[in-house]
Each structure stands twice: as structure tokens, then as C-alpha cells.
Give the backbone structure.
Amino acid sequence: MSTSPQRQRIVVGVDGSSPSVAALHWAAGEARRHGARLEAVIAWRPSAAAIGGPGGRPPASARTLQEHRADAEAVLDLALREISRGAIEIERRAMRGSPHRVLLEAAEGADMLVIGGRSGKLAGKMPWSTGQQVVSDASCPVVVVPAAAARLAEHHDAEELGESSGRAGAGVAGGGVLPG
């Protein structure tokens, strides 16, 4: 029976928002520092709205599942272009379902789940926000990268953000950080 340690796995939720991109930068820095694998995950699901999309696109209800998935993958690709990959292995996953369910499923067995925090008057006050649900229900430690880190990302490169913002203000819920 082999007792060699498995490579650590960090899952990060991406939705294209500034806070999620900041979370991606932070998670990439952690993966680099700890030699962990990084999984960038985006949730997608068809919209129930039947209004037309921008640029004369068909109504959301008429769009195919493949089109919805392709849209999510495009958002993920764009976010991943913004980070320095360096020596880290990144797996991309576009998963169908609610963000809460997708993040919990993707993080099953992970060493850490990283999400972006929101700011504004309603941040953290909405009883069913995805972030609150994830922090409450995750089976691994959850790191919430503050929205302020997204503003820092606009002024620093990915390496600098990964080194500084995680230490300065990321909150950990449900456990500790990766050893190392």
C-alpha cells in the first residue's frame, strides 16, 4: 500500500466578475507556492428569461445548451488569460447547474475552495447569496478573497497580487490554509 502524499488541489470559482478574477489570481499564487493543482470552475445554466440577447441574438429560451456552455467557457478563457500560469497545472471546468451546487460538487475532496467576495450595501446581507451558501456548506476550507483585492488587481500584475493580497485580507472559513 502506497502512502505517498497526493498533490494538493485548489478549486476556484470564476464568473467573470472582478472579485472572481481576483480570487483566481490569489488561488494561482497559492497553487504556485504549494505545488498544487488548480481547478478553475464556472457554473452555467440556461436562462428562463425569454427576452432577446444583445446584438440580435435569439431569446435565451431559444438558445441551445451548447451555446450556453460555450458562453461560460468563453468567460472562463478570458479570466484565465489574465493570470500568469508559471509552473502551475490548471484544469478548466464548465459545469451545468447553480453556482452553489457546482462549487460544492467541484470542491468535493479539494484542499481548498477559493471564491471572490462582493462589496456594496447588500454584500453578505442577502440570506441566500452564493458566497454565504458555499461558506456554510463546503466540506473543505473556503477562502473568500475580498472585493478590494479586485481593485488591487487593476494596478498590480498577477504575481504581485498572488503574493500580497492573499496574506493581507483573504478570509478563511471552515478551516485553515494549505501547509507549506
Q: What stands out?
A: The first helix runs from residue 18 to 34.
